[in-house]
Fold this protein.
Amino acid sequence: MDSPGERLMLFTGRGSPKLAQQIAKKLNTELSKAAVGAFSDGECSVNITDSVRGADVFVVQSTSKPVNNNLMELLVMIDALKRASAARITAVIPYFGYARQDRKARPRDPITAKLVANMLVSAGADRVLTMDLHAPQLQGFFDIPVDHLFGIPVLIDYLKKSPIITDNKDNLVIVSPDVGSANRARTMAGQLNESLNIHAALAIVDKRRPKANQAEVMNIVGDVKGKICLIVDDMIDTAGTITQGAKALKEIGGAKEVFACCTHGVLSGPALERLDKSAIDKLFILDTIDKEDKDTIPKITHISVAPIFAKAIHCIFTNQRVSKLY
């Protein structure tokens, strides 16, 4: 089967220019030209400069802060590309905003993740490529194909070469920051054990959350005394959960050192200050969200997802299976 378009074209809005540039480099291509900005009243202004007629188009845009601006910008770009006769449009959304609003937690709550999925389809997206949705079942919210990449293999490829892992193979514990993330930690431990032929143990931070963005740690499930702990999560937002978990691992569990890793570094509000003062010795974050130099601290290491997204885009363009990247 031939690709819907004979040309691969890569665009970006203002949400992910750094990552898009890195992806373009990996694909040995250039970013296609589009004038993306805002009118004086704040409305999105988009003009696709290059011809996209008959092309297989990929738009790279994380819907991170400012979430509403980046989301609207993505929708307007998709609409412009559709009206310019692109053969197929794939929305490449490394970080999918509003993914946490995936059900009615209280009466009269919206299901905003479903609303955003509907908006992307209505705008003209033919396909979505994303990474580590907060809940994998969000793929079912879409009436178009969704390729869901995972961050753990990228983190493992980096960490298995780090002294944190290589020097502590017999003293390593993979930690879930809460009960709900236990499967992710178990997957991380399993893949590390298989790739390095080690036996990393598993632990869980059991906590009670009194209200939104606050977490009260209760106890540690598993033996972490004198161990090197690696906390694994899908995202860090205000950093309350992960910093309290790290504190508990050292003060309650007696852990020797605590490291952490995640896919999405949202890092909103007091996150950087909390992390800087926390018991976490080093934090590894995938760069699904573009960050300025002022938006990071020395203990954070950013790991590029450009290679895996470039491979996925190439697979989609050439009609190869994306699942081999999992």
User: Anything to note?
Assistant: Residues 67-83 form the longest helix (17 residues). Residues 153-303 form a domain with the Rossmann fold fold (CATH 3.40.50.2020).
